[in-house]
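Here comes just one.
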Amino acid sequence: MRFSQQAGIQVTSDSALLRGINTHGVHGHITIQYALGQLLAGTGLSYSSAGHNTVVLTKAAANITLGPVRVGGTVSRQDPTGPGVGYVATTTMAGTKTDTPITEIPNSIYVVTKQLMQDQQSQSVVEALRYTPGVYSEADGTYGNGSGSTSVGIMQRGFSTTQFVDGLMTNSSSSGEPAFLERIEAVNGPASVMYGQTNPGGMIATGLKKPTDTPLHQVSVGFGNWGRYETAVDLSDKITKSGNLRYRVAAIGVTQGTQVDHVNYHRVGVLPSITWDIDGKTSLSLLGMYMYTPGDGTAYANQEPILGTLIRNSTYPEIPRSHFLGTPNWNEMGEDAEMFEYQFKHEFNRYVTFSQTFRWENSHQTQKTSYLNGIVSPTEEEIATWDNQSQDRTVGLDSRVSGNFSTGPVRHTWVVGSDFRQYGSGGNSVFDFTSFPLVDVYNPRPNYVPCYNMNSSKCENYGVSSKYSYFQEGVYFQDQIKWKGLSVLLGGREDWVNFSGNYGSESTIGSYPASSNYTKYAPQPRHAFTWRAGLIYKFKFGLSPYFSYATSFIPQTSTDWRGTPFAPLTGNQLEAGLKYKVPNKDILITASAFRINEDHYLISDLVHTGYSSDGGHVRSQGFEISANANIMRDLRMVASYSYTDVRFAKTNLTEQRFNPYTSSYYGNLISEQGMSVPQVPRNMASVFFDYTLPRNIFKGFGLNWGLRYIGYTYADEVESFKTKPYTLFDIGAHYDFGNMLPTLKGLKAQMAISNLTNKYYVTSCSTFNCFVGQGRRVYGNLTYNW
């Protein structure tokens, strides 16, 4: 009876079968089928599914082996950190740090399942988020798309986002490598109460692969255009006979070019992990990672001029995507990174559980590249070169106590915790100002060797060094109060932040007079309280209306061009919506409307390239509609529509309008107040289907196709001009060779083509240059499971 209540299914039996039978019980967060197997082991009883969330206990036949039970055609309770089922995930840890159904959380949470990533053959988190509501993942075009780097160019509800892995903020490359991830979640709206420093648009939560309960053996080889070759391994099995000690090793090696000449992507990485179930109430998981990426697939210099990209005509024809607008003999961007993590959990009793996650990560980045220094003419760019070395180190710890208790008919799921994060960053950059080569965008043939000899009078160098130390600690609490179909969520958090650093510059050798200028910033302690409240009511027929209010806080470690740190970002959001889980079906539909306010919104500094400025008070409002559905056994679908209107609600900034045809400003200064925030599309829509053909037509063969629509974005803060909307098509196919020959069981082939028509499009622009989107990408692989 207790199992029936906790699992949410009905267990029936003949009472005579149960007389005199005792079990050893079962304890922990485990699947229904495993729990039933353990509960009935040695009792002489078996079970069968009677449909409609009902299990019937029967007398076991001799020597029977209990298999998995499927209740109502699907597993009733999913692992909240697992890969999901098909395209649907029904539970999550990301929203509340507790195992909670998505339909009981009063804000928008969208899960990119492992199956969806596999069907689309996503090669980065940026690509995996293409079909996610409220998320514009490719604002910077292909910049960072191949590297698997964290949060590059990703916008949520009009705000830049932050990525967390296993509940901790990260700077590790492991967070962006799909071969190491079990699932990706977009938590739209403020998440500061549980995670601290996040923008009000939301956060991206990912989960690293950990040992599985059942053996997993998978190897794959992949290939694609631009000379891509890839090998990946994913192995998991038990170490001890009982299975209380298990391991998993995920590894990847890949090499390829990109659509841009002289820009390549090379990576090798390994993620080993061990899980030890110390006893029935205690578990420990250890994870490590090493990643070496000597070429990260980014083109730092490849911000192309407006004429020839956004504006294309007979005078300014299309600039080919392959043109590299830098200097090939000074073109190196890479990283090496390592990480260690542990996850510990102990259940004191049915009321109190202790959990702790710790991570240490370190990375070193090298950039010897060129960058756009100015537009000389409509067909010529001036570039400058630099040599940048930087290192990041992060230590994070999240400790929490959670549990359940009841006050009469009211059930409480509570969490009290504390987390901290120590982040250190340092870097040195040297700029060559000896000369500034010109690049013809239609015939780029630069042949410039930077001059960095500090002892030569022929070299003119300018050096910059910086060092930041950042410490954040937070204490948080949360109570999920449930009475019948009503769930109320209350939570609060106090954050303390202290950061300090220095910023220095020095000119050496050449016509620049020798000088130095170093600024040291004293420690700047800050603190803030954030809170959220929401309610959601779940009707028996599956509909769940909700309403919530939440606040956010994020201190700014970045500085303006003078090196002065920005004031903290503070925001709040009102959100109302509907969630509908179709009874007995894997179909989840979500609709939400929101209004976000944020102070000290950062925008690009149009005068000082590479820096930001304070844009004042910004308001984002809109709505989202999404559907994740396993419609039938062989038909899956995701679909969404997003409307996001982001404007400067209050600001003192003014600006002249810009004419992209003449590359010049004109007219009087115009207030930015009431204008749209640039680089944010107002409308986005997408749909993706995967269908495995009936067995009597072509057994084992499946097809998928998708459509992505992205609306226009403005290029500057006074709506001078905007990009063009674009529609892209994706297709794919897969075939299970086990349907051809039994000896080929476990062998599967997949093919995915994104931007099928090879459409030339621009993802976003600033006043002088644009980011060009990814052309047709073809990727396929052969995977063998045993």
About this structure: The helical segments are 2-7, 15-18, 32-40, 114-120, 125-128, 192-195, 695-698. The CA atoms of residues 57 and 185 lie 37 Å apart. The chain has seven helices and 43 strands.
